[in-house]
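I am still getting used to backbone structure tokens and would like to learn alongside you. To get us started, please write out a protein record for me. Once you have written the record down, we can walk along the chain together.
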Amino acid sequence: MVGNKAFGAYVPRYRMGKETAGWGTSAEKAVANFDEDSVTMAVTAGRNCLKGIDPQKIDGLLFATTTPPYAEKQCSSIIATALDLRREINTADITGVLRAGTSSLKLAMDSVNAGSAKQVLVIAADARLAGPRGDLERNMGDGAAAVLISADSNAADLEGSYSISENMLDMWRSQGDSFVRTWEDRFMTEEGLERILPDAVAGFMGKHNVKAGEFAKAVFHSPDARRHTQLGRRMGFSEEQLQDPLFGSVGNTGAAHPILGLVGALEDAQKGDLVLVASYGDGSDVMSFRANGSDGTNGSRTRLAELIERKVLISSYETYARWRDVWTSDAASRRPAPAVPSVTALWRESDQNIRLYGAKCTQCDAMQYPPQRVCTICLAKDTSEPVRLSDKSGEVYTYSMDYIAGTTDVPLVVTVINFEGGGRMLCMMTDRELDEVQVGMPVEMTFRKLRVVNGIHNYYWKSMPRRSNN
């Protein structure tokens, strides 16, 4: 039976909360670092989902987001490359609506059911912006979730689905808009969310002859915690049945929100538990899954609860605004403009920069990064084989701190990393506190954005302090 073979999540390390100057509320929200976006978060969630699974056996990748870095270029192809998926797969971006995540799940399940694919990876990620210091901004957060859809060995089986489509202009963002726009609040609530979502859930229950009391957990969209409780009661769910919507800790993560809730529910589900998932946005998708008693982690994936607990509050709202280019300083304007990346070089060096392939000499087993035709140890020529370094741990061999490099996050920490099993790499360090950086420090690799110049998003791998549980 088609269902979820594995799942994973990603929540950025940084938060705005009570101790953030200028934030003005005790409620916390997850905020992506300055070098993160929906693509980098999707890669991290995908890596968490695929731990222990051969990426070369994935047949498709669907990327759901309302905040794609490119308006015209497929982002799922970037993600597939960074995850080291094979070339002969189907990739697609599902964008433009908050229910893109559940729509992607439905498409993936239909594909597996039809036999056109055996395993399809669905990743949803969003980093939305709202007007500064408004209610919408306080309730929105950044994050990503990934689900591997398969026909066998499932952590949870699909029990049924139901969808409705309705043109509703209650929340939107046009080309060129930085911030999400909304219409009058009462109209949005009464004619939009509180009418459409219950209609969809009722239609699902009628189609599949189930009742609200049969579900162990219900996951559904809501703009804030108050309306989440009200909606749950309106649809017949008790408070104990409502999956934590993560308001006050992460926030509404857009297209990823229902998928993130599903991951959280399945991680704690008992065998036989039914979980309902309902999204919202120009209609609604409703699905139910029956858990098979496995949380999908196999002891290696990082659980959602652990990701939420690993947090650092940023010092000021100004820091967040600078990360998002909401506010700019004149310091950047006093520096020379960065050089435009060579598109030819980006294409030519994709394996070493995006897949993070090193080379292992078949004559003497020496590891090199970046790959070279001639082994630096035994001088053998053209005898190397590619080795993926992104999943390897390492430690800091040496480092430097640059206070005048013009980076968003001063100082720029540059590290030389020695990988376990051999290989050395020069790279930036991210998600770090200055007092923890030291020689010998354990690190892991993370896919991040170097800069955006002339509309080109230059992605690469950085080191960060090791925080994974494996």
